[in-house]
């Protein structure tokens, strides 16, 4: 059976499971049955796509189904790029299903989740496989709607309705942009097959317009600033394993769309495109992580950090565009590999962290970090894997986040040879932004882990927390192991990505398997190399050595005592540093500019018994500056248009007549 | 034979940094004391401090978890590995291709990440205040350091520290505006990262003014010894780094004879002493900054690094 047929049967299987879920609906065992089935199907699809990607020279294969537009049919195609994203989708799907086996039992309304979960997975698979504009858009909408239904799963919780409404509006906007982009690509002949679009030549104006529309369409789904507003609302509103899928996987499907159109369908890129993408990527990375630092809701923090990672990926894609436009194949392959590697890494650790947040939610019923704390004592396994996720996402060696960040910096260092002045100035600035974002990410995850898992419990719920079930834990442990594996054996991943860069860019990085000792060298060993395995071994050996020496020669005495409180031991856990106070120095440094943050202290006069109060004022300038005016304008114009509903028949007729005359006039002047 | 000499050179350097690190700190303290006309403790006092700490019992705060007990070893290991990758008296280390300048920044970042978490683990406000300020400083210092390294890497055409040192030592690099900016920025970052005046005061006894010290306030006994040792090593690492990149005078190149190694080692000790003296002089002459002046200080370092890199991007001659 060819790989494509296998993938399509898996999709059919997922759709079948969705139907089965409707049938089983309220049966007691439905949760177990459905998640078992999705785990199995996702695993089959995962191994199928891995086999295709790393097997003997992946050959693209196509398939036409007699559905969709009658003269076109529905085209599907599997090539190296699609198979890589299938790996991301199905790995996320399999781990989320495994996690769901445990987590799903805590769901108050499983019948609102179960049918849409496999449908959502099927939708994401189909988007990646689609090979004509019509089926692409159809599958894209299917994916959006399925995820929207999942966001609405807990529809009675406050704010969820608003979140899903904003999501729906933004998703429609994104699809509209994609629709226009594909319309332009198909041109006047209206050939919607990707093969025809790829073969056609596009004028620079069309290419520029398509790029902008793709940035709007795919960018709004991926969460590029300023189109990100729905993401921190919708991702946390869904059940945690769905949040993991939306953040870790669905944003990647949007990136797939962007890559497919800008790198593959549009042909040779033009360099000004890369300036736009670099700028958006760099800004998104820093803005996303600053938002995350200001946040005290654990799941919203993770959603904002997704925005940061999307920014990093887009910056990598921007670099790849810049090099590709100037014909520097090797550097383009390096930047593109870095971006794809980060796609994979982010899907690992973001799923892991959302699972961890879900575990915390199950154990305590809290998402507010200021009501958590001390969970490391009560949830030892969860806190260990979440710690691994936090280290990985903070780009610290020897984990995987560092490798993609390192490759990204190596790509930045390749760019002084670029001929354009705009790029010469842009690239180091983006390098600085990426460095800043990485450092801020470390700060953010010290905060997230420190406030949630360390210290003393800040509420009775956190005090009474307990470890979660085995299925959830095993899903998290598998992802944590993958984080480490991809970090210590990056050469394997880079080599597996080579067919994609050959396919899309026509160049590849040097074969990493040839490097001694499993190290990686993007250009040449004398320029730069990194060996995650040895770094891990060195750290382990030197740590064990110091432990051995200390325990051999130093005193073993150990006593527990109260913490030093400077003469005033604080009795209440509320006196600990909270999420907001932890971020205070960074809020003062960056927030006064970015969020117009102000601290208002209300200090009562001596003798007054009223408590002192500190109020923090933060403004989301994107929401207030872009979205609220639009909302206001829409409200205003709909109020005005509303009057048209109450006209007399005479006025309606004159309105129709006036419209007709105007249109005829326009037509007369036009031609 | 070559491999054996490689291993010896690498091993000697790793041990040398361990042995010299407390001495350097002791030397800086001695000079500082002499500059304010105090007698000061012996330069060997840090060794005695470490031994004394090792013999003492550990008092753990009630709420601390396993993370708190693991952190001293993890941070020490990360800093030691980073220090072992920096050429001290000879380039061409055996494992120099394991990790480059960017990885060294990240290794130091790992050490700080765990220390900041340990500060949060205690569950008091002092640990929190230390951690939150430390990550604020790091959030500015780390990108500044990366930009300095971008600048160096663009000049030398490599991020590999041994290659960089070879390049700086062997060929005629000349005076470059970019490198001047980079060295100033790197010194500023080094002051901040090592919790020295004017960013932080390593000898303060007032909890509210502490940054680094507040974070490790609850550590005692052997754990504190590891953390102190890590801090000594880090100071040595930064000085070695600045010396090997910007002042590669007499550094033994790869494959030269034992005589060159001896000369390199002598020159290295001289460089350390000079750097320690200037550090003490600078610390005696300046006052500590307010916490919220630090961002301006480090922002200047960041901008210098960016400017240096930008100059290299737009022109080949700077």
Can you describe what's shown?
The complex is a heterodimer of chains A (671) and B (318). Chain A is mainly α. Chain A has helices at 3-24, 30-54, 80-103, 116-129, 133-151, 160-186, 194-199, 204-222, 231-237, 240-265, 271-294, 298-325, 329-364, 375-378, 380-393, 400-413, 421-453, 460-463, 470-488, 490-505, 532-553, 579-582, 584-594, 621-642, 649-670; strands at residues 61-65, 74-78, 558-561, 598-602, 613-617. A two-stranded antiparallel sheet of chain A has the order 1-2. Chain A has a two-stranded antiparallel ribbon with strand order 4-5. By secondary structure, chain B is mainly alpha-helical. Chains A and B meet through helix 16, helix 17, helix 21, strand 3 and helix 23 of A and strand 1, helix 3, helix 4, helix 5 and helix 9 of B.
Number of helical elements of chain B:
11
> Structural class given helices, strands, pairing of chain A?
mainly alpha
Radius of gyration of chain B: 19 Å
Q: Please work out how many helical segments of chain A DSSP would assign.
A: 25
Roughly what is the average pLDDT of chain A, rounded to an integer?
A: 91
Rg of chain A over CA atoms, rounded to whole Å, is 26 Å
Provide the succession of SSEs of chain B.
Answer: HHEHHHHHHHHH
Shape descriptor of chain A = globular
Specify the structural class of chain B: mainly alpha
In what order do the strands lie side by side in the largest sheet of chain A?
Answer: 1-2
How many angstroms separate the termini of chain B?
42 Å
Indicate the percent of residues in helices of chain A.
55-70%
Mean pLDDT across the residues of chain B is 88
Largest interface, counted with CB-CB under 8 A? A-B, 87 and 86 residues
Number of strands of chain A: 5
**Strand count of chain B:** 1
How much of the sequence lies in strands of chain B comes to under 5%
Largest sheet of chain B: none
């Amino acid at each position: 059976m060819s790989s494509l047929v296998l993938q399509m049967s898996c999709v059919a299987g997922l759709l079948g499971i969705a139907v089965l879920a409707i049938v089983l609906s309220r049966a007691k065992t439905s949760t177990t049955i459905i998640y078992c089935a999705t785990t199995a199907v996702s695993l089959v699809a995962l191994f199928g796509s891995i086999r295709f990607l790393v097997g003997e020279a992946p050959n693209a294969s196509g398939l036409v189904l007699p559905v969709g537009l009658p003269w076109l049919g529905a085209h599907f195609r599997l090539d190296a790029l699609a198979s890589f994203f299938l790996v991301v989708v199905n790995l996320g799907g399999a781990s989320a299903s495994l996690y769901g086996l445990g987590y799903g039992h805590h769901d108050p309304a499983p019948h609102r989740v179960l049918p849409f979960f496999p449908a959502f997975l099927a939708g994401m698979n189909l988007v990646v496989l689609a090979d004509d504009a019509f089926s692409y858009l159809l599958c894209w909408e299917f994916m959006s709607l399925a995820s929207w239904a999942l966001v609405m799963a807990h529809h009675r919780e406050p704010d969820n309705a608003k979140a899903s409404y904003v999501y729906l509006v933004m998703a429609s906007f994104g699809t509209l942009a994609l629709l226009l982009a594909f319309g332009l690509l198909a041109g006047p002949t209206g050939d919607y097959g990707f093969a025809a679009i790829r073969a056609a030549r596009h004028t620079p104006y069309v290419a520029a317009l398509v790029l902008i529309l793709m940035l709007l369409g795919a960018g709004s789904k991926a969460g590029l600033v300023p189109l990100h507003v729905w993401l921190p609302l919708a991702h946390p509103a869904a059940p945690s394993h769905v949040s993991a899928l939306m953040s870790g996987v669905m944003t990647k499907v949007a990136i797939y769309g962007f890559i497919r159109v800008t790198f593959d369908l549009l042909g040779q890129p033009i360099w000004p495109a890369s300036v736009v993408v670099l700028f958006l990527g760099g800004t998104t990375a820093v803005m996303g992580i600053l938002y995350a630092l200001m946040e005290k809701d654990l799941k919203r923090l993770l959603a904002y950090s997704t925005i940061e990672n999307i920014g990093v990926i887009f910056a990598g894609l921007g670099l790849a565009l810049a090099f590709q436009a100037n014909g520097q194949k090797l550097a383009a392959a390096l930047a593109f590999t870095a971006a794809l590697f980060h796609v994979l890494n982010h899907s690992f650790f973001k799923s892991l962290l959302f699972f961890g947040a879900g575990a915390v939610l199950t154990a305590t019923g809290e998402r507010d970090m200021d009501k958590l704390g001390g969970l490391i004592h009560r949830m030892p396994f969860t806190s260990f894997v979440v710690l691994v996720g936090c280290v990985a996402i903070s780009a610290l060696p020897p984990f995987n986040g560092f490798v993609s960040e390192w490759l990204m910096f190596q790509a930045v260092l390749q760019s002084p040879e670029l001929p354009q002045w705009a790029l010469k100035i842009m690239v180091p600035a983006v390098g600085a932004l990426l460095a800043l974002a990485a450092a801020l990410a470390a700060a953010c995850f010290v905060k997230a882990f420190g406030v949630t898992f360390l210290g003393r419990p800040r509420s009775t719920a956190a005090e009474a927390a307990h470890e979660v079930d085995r299925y959830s834990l095993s899903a998290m442990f598998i992802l944590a192991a993958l984080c480490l594996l991809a970090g210590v054996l990056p050469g394997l991943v880079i080599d597996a990505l080579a067919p994609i860069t050959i396919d899309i860019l026509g160049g590849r990085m040097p074969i990493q398997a040839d490097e001694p000792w499993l190290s990686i060298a993007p250009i040449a060993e004398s320029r730069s190399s990194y060996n995650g395995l040895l770094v891990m071994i060195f750290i382990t050996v030197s740590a064990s050595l110091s432990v051995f020496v200390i325990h051999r020669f130093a005193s073993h005495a150990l006593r527990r005592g109260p913490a030093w409180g400077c003469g005033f031991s604080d009795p209440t856990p509320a006196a600990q540093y909270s999420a907001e106070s932890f971020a205070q120095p960074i809020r003062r440094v960056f927030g006064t500019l970015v969020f117009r943050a102000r601290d208002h202290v209300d200090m009562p006069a001596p003798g007054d018994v009223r408590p002192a109060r500190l109020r923090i004022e933060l403004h989301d300038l994107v929401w207030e500056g872009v979205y609220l005016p639009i909302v206001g304008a829409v409200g205003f114009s709909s109020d005005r248009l509303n009057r048209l509903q109450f006209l007399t028949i005479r006025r309606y007729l004159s309105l129709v007549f006036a419209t007709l005359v105007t249109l005829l006039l326009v037509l007369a002047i036009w031609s | 034979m070559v491999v054996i000499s490689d291993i010896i050179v690498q091993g000697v350097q790793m041990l040398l940094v361990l042995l010299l690190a407390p001495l350097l700190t002791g030397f800086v303290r001695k000079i500082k004391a002499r500059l304010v006309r105090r007698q000061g403790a012996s330069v060997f006092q840090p060794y005695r401090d470490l031994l004394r700490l090792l013999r003492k019992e550990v008092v753990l705060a009630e709420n601390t978890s396993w993370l708190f007990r693991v952190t001293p070893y993890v941070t020490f290991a990360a800093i030691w590995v980073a220090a072992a990758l920096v050429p001290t008296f000879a380039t061409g280390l055996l494992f120099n291709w394991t990790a480059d300048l960017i990885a060294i920044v990240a290794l130091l970042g790992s050490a700080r990440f765990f220390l900041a978490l340990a500060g949060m683990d205690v569950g008091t406000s002092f640990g929190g205040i230390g951690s939150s300020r430390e990550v604020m400083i790091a959030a500015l210092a780390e990108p500044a350091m990366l930009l300095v390294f971008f600048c160096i890497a663009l000049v030398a055409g490599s991020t590999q520290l041994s290659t960089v040192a070879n390049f700086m030592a062997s060929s005629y690099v000349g005076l470059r505006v970019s490198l001047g900016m980079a060295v100033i920025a790197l010194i500023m970052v080094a002051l901040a990262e090592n919790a020295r005046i004017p960013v932080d005061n390593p000898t303060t006894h007032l909890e509210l003014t502490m940054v680094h010290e507040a974070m490790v306030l609850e550590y005692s006994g052997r754990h504190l010894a590891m953390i102190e040792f890590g801090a000594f090593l880090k100071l040595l690492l930064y000085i070695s780094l600045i010396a090997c990149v910007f002042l590669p005078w007499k550094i033994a190149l790869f494959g030269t004879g034992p005589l060159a190694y001896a000369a390199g080692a002598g020159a290295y000790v001289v460089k350390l002493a000079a750097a320690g003296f200037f550090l003490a002089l600078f610390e005696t002459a300046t006052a500590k900054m307010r916490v919220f002046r630090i961002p301006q200080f480090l922002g200047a370092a960041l901008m210098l690094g960016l400017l240096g890199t930008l100059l290299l991007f737009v022109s080949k001659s700077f």
